[in-house]
Amino acid sequence: MKYAIQPDVVSAHNDKLASDLNRDFEVLGEQLSRKGVDINALTEKAQAFDIAVPSWGTGTGGTRFARFPGVGEPRNIFEKVEDCAVIHQLSGCASAISPHFPWDVVDDFSELKAHSDSYGLSWSSVNSNTFQDQPDQAQSYKYGSLTHTSAAVREQAIAHNTQVIEWGKKLGSDTLTVWVGDGSNHPGQQHFQRAFERYLDSAKAIYAALPGDWEMHLEHKMFEPAFYSTVIQDWGSNILAAMETGERCKSLVDLGHHAPNVNIEMIVSRLIQFKKLGGFHFNDSKYGDDDLDSGSIHPYQQFLIFNELVDAEHRKQPGFSPAYMLDQSHNVTDPIESLINSAIEVQRSYIKALLVDRTTLEGYQQDNDALMASNTLKGAFNVDVSPILAMARFRKNAAINPLATYRASQYREQAAVARPDTGGSRSGIV
Amino acid sequence: MKYAIQPDVVSAHNDKLASDLNRDFEVLGEQLSRKGVDINALTEKAQAFDIAVPSWGTGTGGTRFARFPGVGEPRNIFEKVEDCAVIHQLSGCASAISPHFPWDVVDDFSELKAHSDSYGLSWSSVNSNTFQDQPDQAQSYKYGSLTHTSAAVREQAIAHNTQVIEWGKKLGSDTLTVWVGDGSNHPGQQHFQRAFERYLDSAKAIYAALPGDWEMHLEHKMFEPAFYSTVIQDWGSNILAAMETGERCKSLVDLGHHAPNVNIEMIVSRLIQFKKLGGFHFNDSKYGDDDLDSGSIHPYQQFLIFNELVDAEHRKQPGFSPAYMLDQSHNVTDPIESLINSAIEVQRSYIKALLVDRTTLEGYQQDNDALMASNTLKGAFNVDVSPILAMARFRKNAAINPLATYRASQYREQAAVARPDTGGSRSGIV
Amino acid sequence: MKYAIQPDVVSAHNDKLASDLNRDFEVLGEQLSRKGVDINALTEKAQAFDIAVPSWGTGTGGTRFARFPGVGEPRNIFEKVEDCAVIHQLSGCASAISPHFPWDVVDDFSELKAHSDSYGLSWSSVNSNTFQDQPDQAQSYKYGSLTHTSAAVREQAIAHNTQVIEWGKKLGSDTLTVWVGDGSNHPGQQHFQRAFERYLDSAKAIYAALPGDWEMHLEHKMFEPAFYSTVIQDWGSNILAAMETGERCKSLVDLGHHAPNVNIEMIVSRLIQFKKLGGFHFNDSKYGDDDLDSGSIHPYQQFLIFNELVDAEHRKQPGFSPAYMLDQSHNVTDPIESLINSAIEVQRSYIKALLVDRTTLEGYQQDNDALMASNTLKGAFNVDVSPILAMARFRKNAAINPLATYRASQYREQAAVARPDTGGSRSGIV
Amino acid sequence: MKYAIQPDVVSAHNDKLASDLNRDFEVLGEQLSRKGVDINALTEKAQAFDIAVPSWGTGTGGTRFARFPGVGEPRNIFEKVEDCAVIHQLSGCASAISPHFPWDVVDDFSELKAHSDSYGLSWSSVNSNTFQDQPDQAQSYKYGSLTHTSAAVREQAIAHNTQVIEWGKKLGSDTLTVWVGDGSNHPGQQHFQRAFERYLDSAKAIYAALPGDWEMHLEHKMFEPAFYSTVIQDWGSNILAAMETGERCKSLVDLGHHAPNVNIEMIVSRLIQFKKLGGFHFNDSKYGDDDLDSGSIHPYQQFLIFNELVDAEHRKQPGFSPAYMLDQSHNVTDPIESLINSAIEVQRSYIKALLVDRTTLEGYQQDNDALMASNTLKGAFNVDVSPILAMARFRKNAAINPLATYRASQYREQAAVARPDTGGSRSGIV
């Protein structure tokens, strides 16, 4: 087992903080026990929580206007794995990497897998890319991929997806996530129904190549890169496509891909009810697909989403096992810091949602006691569960204070020296 | 056959305008023939076009803050029928009335039917009301109707809907439109999944009472009266509910019931594709469910919706026969004027959409010639089809200039005398 | 001094909860002291916090579709004062009432003042109403009030506002809040510039009647009741109007009156900077002017607004003294419960904002350490300050658990008996 | 005088279309004369209309995800000028170019000016760029430019702007347009007031360098590239900044830079009223700053904006002379085609707005005849003014059918050969 950061850097930091943590944990435990909640059971839940990190998130992101790269950015998937190792080592809750192809293609996948194994990291869903043209590509995706009017383009896009599945198998993944930017910028440019029919045909062709124990996740998005219409524009088109495609085809929810004001937690509930919730791309946003750090703008909304998830778990909803992943663009922060922080913020929502007394809530719902139902959720949200999260990390030899530990480790400064050339990086997406 | 306005008032007006109309029609006909379009075929389409008027739309609408009634408002369904007769007589394209129960309940439906028959008017979809409490009601809808946690409330709401079907049969209707305000104002107030399950059970119970040649239309709405969650909040929940409920259960699209920026014409296409487009509530809006006059804010969007409808007609999409209705709140205009004007504005979109050369458009779509595809639609939209609409009215003995004719008829002034008491009107919804 | 609820009901409840509260307060104090924060200083701030209650908020609200009144609603301003007395007695932070005229007009204002004095309540800003027609009114506001094209209507609206000032003087108020629904539903209906010029003239005429120690607050709103344009549609028009009108004319921010996605805390900062922040109408919303309970949907946004307010206080920004008021529509809850709860939720945001270490934050801002700046705010927000809020109430003889105490008091049940007729209530606005 | 396209290609096309055009023009003239409108006066207005083209718009645009360049893209400002020459030659209404620095910096500006002069093109507002880092730059704009916490960065940004003015002088420009992406992605990252104070200081420093006959235009934008807050986020901050900076500092309106649902025509009216409307960046959008072709999504909104502009012209509003410019991202079309088409679509809105009978409209406004006021605008909008636009082009030796002429000219195919290397183009912004 390798470590991206020397374990003694972590333990030295933890040593200084352990006493206060123990005290805060004890006190919170006492308060929770008054409500009949066992803090250690909660802490075990926190220890078991895990969220995947996207390989591309380790690079600085940008906008169509500019990208301002930081120093020491990873130049290839091996270096991205190292950064992911830091994230997991310090957060204790991010042990899987989600790769993006062809960005992360390597000659020798067994070498890559050995590399990630050495850090105790695994591979979650694999992502295909048919929204960009690659240098050696026969057909262009300028006017679409899985929905293109040309059969040759669609076939190329389908073949790429089946290739991605093959690469994923080598890494031990079991999910293919399909996001396409297909759509139109002008009214009339695309025939809505024909485009969707082509999408369904393409999706079925990919699904046919899916191993029997894999899932295929479709991702919807309201707009961008297409600005008048997008083929899978919302959860309605998404779930219909998933239903048409096959049982193991499910819908993926990215928090930033919805129309303004939309009640996302309700969409989550609908997908759970119809057994089609595949997973999440967590991030936060104020305007569009801003890809901000999870929980940094609307933490209560994130909690309300987890309220649905924990409720489904609690009700033992059949077939419920969504995949969690971060999907953010880190334009002004150190990506490693943002990913550590965001993983924990998602974990925070999960633990808070576990605090909701579901029997009490159900009683208020049954009685239409709207204010007490609301306060039941707010009461759980208001509890500061930081000691639980910190204790979960401490017990897993992760960092009580991950950001301070990271900065003290000088990992970034060392990477800046070790990785001099980041100009050409394809990470961070811009 | 009775007339709400003396036919000689109409013909006197038309006589003055006929010469210019004939000239404009001739010239436009020449221009269209250059493009291979037969103006008389289009005019026949315009003559055949019809859109239903909601009975409640004949009264002045309002907001939660105030209602400013006009003079001579209809005080009962018989007077509303008279106003609808004016609308159809002058517009020539609004021969059906959509009643709302219990507002429009009468002791003797055959008397009401004879009344509407005498004006040549028929009855389109019947609307139930479980979003308000009626004076004599056993159970309150304060916390929901079809989704209420109490079985007694749900049963009352179901019974009301089946009663509405019975009333509708007496009037010759063949569609039940179900809109409920059910939802919540507080996170936690309602269990999303359980509420939706109750909705589905209730909808199926109503559907079981539906005559074999009727359709049932479900209407979704993002918000208002519920401000945190609404049970049928969007087309996604709507189509799933329609699919679960039965083959003749379809989705109804109200143009003002969507999230900001949503591409409504695409939703229309999806519903057509999945054979679930039941019909429309036409109106326009800038902010929320503003219920403004159709085409007064976003005329191009209304055209793009008709582009989908005409395309489906053109492709002979199986099972395609949506119902058209206006649903507006006339807060600052004479409702009769707004309804006449709006019926014609919807008709205008239909005729413009018929001008689209679909073979040409399909070619541009196939070639990804986005600009020419866009211009094909814009080119049709830019044509001023007013002479076609006016000629269609003229040929049906409706008014060439409906608003001027209406004002000249002094119908409103006479109604003000004949209908002195409008204070207690339930029309206009507020 | 009178009490709306028997003090021994309160103290009996408090007795049962005091021990746990003391324990939680002690523990939190210890945790805060580690960060250099004095919990008692914070608690004094909480004790000093006060937010006004709108008289109309004590009745059940509604929508244009329906209103579902509760039992025991106040039938006049005297009964509203009693309800406000309950709210303040239990919350300890809502000692002022904001009246609405002509709804709250009485024959004898000294009697009304004596009534409120007896409960230790005072009167904050007075509100005029030119968005509804009153039975005896000469001119109608159907097409506007302060901006109407008719001078007679404008003069009536101005005269009403100056009359409201006179009534306010009798109650000891020192602020006039002006909200008008003026605007248009159709493009072209109103000439934007001329309407705004008329607004400015009217505002200046009212301002001329303002006592020298009063402020006049203008309230903007994006839409509703006008659905195409509103004269004071946003903070831009608001601040320009305030600047044109006079030094003591300021802008009032209602949290639900903005376009989707707008950064409200930034608007607050701008108004502070230009010395034009008059005050707030607190509520929460998901879609439009939903008037939901404060902090029930976007608690972090409410915190971020208080972060601006506390920052201005901290910087001793000249002329900074905004007025706080709740403005909510309680459609599905007991209004007294919602107002108690909401007053405390606003207070909660204030106390959390006081926890922000402004020196540390400024350092991160100076260094562009975006993540640590964000975490500094989130860190303060994450602290559960409930013990501070409860202790502040306890020390003021208010209720440690206000909702439980209120329910135990059976105040509503007694009001239901004492106030049998609520059908005609003008409270709650619908 | 040079031509980008051989004049005989244009005239050959025109010859084929002239007969039908003359016929349509004659007929429309007759129809308009019935309404008292002189078609030749309108055509002269159309001939006099001119809108600037942004140099960067001649390249294919893109998104943060990808850019799909077309063939024959201009590789430098000289080639961009040639493309602009095509646009003007065929549209007859786009004689000015707006350059962007440092993208368009050349060693010898007199050579560039001679080049544009040779095509009869002039230079409109110059644009500075402090939202990207240039290779040789001392300070980074990652965390802001004019508002950066570091004085050195601000000074560099100010110096760049004053340099841009100097370059602009050499080209004969008289306006500096300032758009900055400054803002924040995290709550707390930036102190709103201090950032705005720094902005004002920087703006004043630039203004001090402005020649006495120049204007400085500030551009606001709700979001992107900053996703939590933007320093000049809306017209409120914009006009306040313009007022603080100086008399010749004005606000520029980009149609895609507003919050959802905002009434942009009303903002235009406010800026006109306060003598601060500097100009426009025309484009269209459905979701965010989509930068779609002008009038392609919301043509009626564009008309309503011109209704305000024509009204101000009609009222001889003092100091009213806004600058018009296109600002679009052409991701899926040939940029030359989109720019030709868009220039004409803006011109179309202008001519339609001239058709509004302002005396009649004012009468309806005075009488609160909302429907007839609305119909007065819609009536003008419904007229198909295409023959006027085509005749204006024909009379200026531009193309009756610009797109067909352009395609027939094979300009793009020739450029593809003449400009083999477009990979490194900085045009199109991505």
Structure description:
The structure is a homotetramer of 430-residue chains. With 430 residues, chain A is an alpha/beta fold. Chain A has a single domain, classed as TIM Barrel (Alpha-Beta Barrel), CATH 3.20.20.150. Helix content of chain A is 48%, strand content 9%. Chain A is built from 15 helices and 11 strands. A 6-stranded parallel β-sheet of chain A has the order 4-5-7-9-10-11. Chain A has a 3-stranded parallel β-sheet with strand order 1-2-3, covered by helices on one side. In chain A, strands 6-8 form a two-stranded antiparallel sheet. In chain A, helix 2 packs across helix 13 (386-395). The radius of gyration of chain A is 22 Å and the shape is globular. The relative contact order of chain A is 0.17. The mean pLDDT of chain A is 97. At the A-C interface, helix 1, helix 10 and helix 12 of A face helix 1, helix 10 and helix 12 of C.
Blueprint of the fold:
The structure is a homotetramer of 430-residue chains.
Chain A: H1 7-34, H2 39-48, E1 53-54, H3 77-91, E2 96-98, H4 109-118, E3 122-123, E4 126-127, H5 151-171, E5 175-178, E6 183-184, H6 192-208, E7 215-219, E8 229-230, H7 235-245, E9 249-254, H8 264-273, E10 277-282, H9 299-314, E11 323-326, H10 335-354, H11 358-366, H12 370-382, H13 386-395, H14 402-409, H15 411-418
Helix pairs in contact in A: 1-13, 2-10, 2-13, 3-10, 5-6, 8-9, 9-10, 10-12, 11-12
User: What is CATH's topology name of chain A?
Assistant: TIM Barrel
- Report the β-strand fraction of chain A as a percent range: 5-15%
Number of helices of chain A: 15
The end-to-end distance of chain A, rounded to whole angstroms, is 34 Å
Shape of chain A: globular
Most residues in contact, chain pair and counts: A-B, 59 and 59 residues
Strand order of the largest sheet of chain A: 4-5-7-9-10-11
| CATH class identity of chain A | Alpha Beta
Order of helices and strands of chain A: HHEHEHEEHEEHEEHEHEHEHHHHHH
* Count of discrete domains of chain A: 1
Using only C-alpha atoms, the radius of gyration of chain A works out to: 22 Å
* CATH H-level superfamily of chain A: Divalent-metal-dependent TIM barrel enzymes
Biggest β-sheet strands, sense, barrel of chain A: 6 strands, parallel
Instruction: State the helicity of chain A in percent bands.
Output: 40-55%
Please count the beta strands of chain A (DSSP E, at least 2 residues each): 11
Average pLDDT confidence of chain A is: 97
| Structural class designation of chain A | alpha/beta
CATH architecture of chain A: Alpha-Beta Barrel
Low-confidence stretches of chain A: none
Quaternary structure classification: homotetramer
